[in-house]
Amino acid sequence: MIGGLFVYNHKGEVLICRLFRDDLTRDAVNAFRVNVIHARQQQVRSPVNLIGRVSFVHRKTDGVWLVAASRKDANAAAMVEVLRRIAITMHSYFGKLTEEAIRSNFVLIYELLDELIDFGYPQLTDPSVLKTYIMQSGVKAVTQEEQKQITSQVTGQISWRREGIKYRRNELFIDVVEHVNLLMSAQGQVLSAHVAGRVLMKSFLSGMPECKLGINDKLSIRDTSRIAVSSGTLDDSKPEPYSNT
Description:
Blueprint: E1 4-8, E2 14-19, H1 27-37, E3 48-51, E4 54-61, E5 64-70, H2 76-94, H3 99-104, H4 106-116, E6 117-118, E7 121-122, H5 127-130, E8 134-135, E9 138-139, H6 144-155, E10 171-184, E11 190-204, E12 218-223, E13 228-233
């Protein structure tokens, strides 16, 4: 739960100040500037700082400080991820996240923040979805049918892929990348051995087809030189949301 979000330049001047909850005041802006940005020792390396009773989580990129503040017992890791998603969204709109770009896009940034965070809770952080109705010049006027498609894309399970995608040729490229790790003693004894791998997929399929991929969870490797058979188990198999599998 984020109480407010602030953006500072390298001098500590406030560029953006957006309060989402009433339990946080603008005094928190000065507290972070004095205790972190203008700290004489300049040894504040932790991204999480507790000043008074307010927790501050910051991220510095391109000379700009992105800061999220909360008086509640919020999840610090979630706040770090929200700042990362905000930086990605602004990069997709402005290119580099610089002071000049922020000053030139005040109105658009506040519109984005209203969509990204609602009453302190992250809502919509996918830039591809935001760009369907928030353009560089402001909010795009859409018809009722387009609004239904946007609502379905935002609230559905496939917000990362819009409808109506068509390719001249339906193709699917799959790469299997494996990393073998082996630790042996001086006497030739195997201390630890494991294989970590990823299945990378690049889809050029029209629409939203159902793709079924089969992977054996039990593997058997036969060594003909030693007449031995070893077996292994696939662990931590997690599909990434890039295809409807």
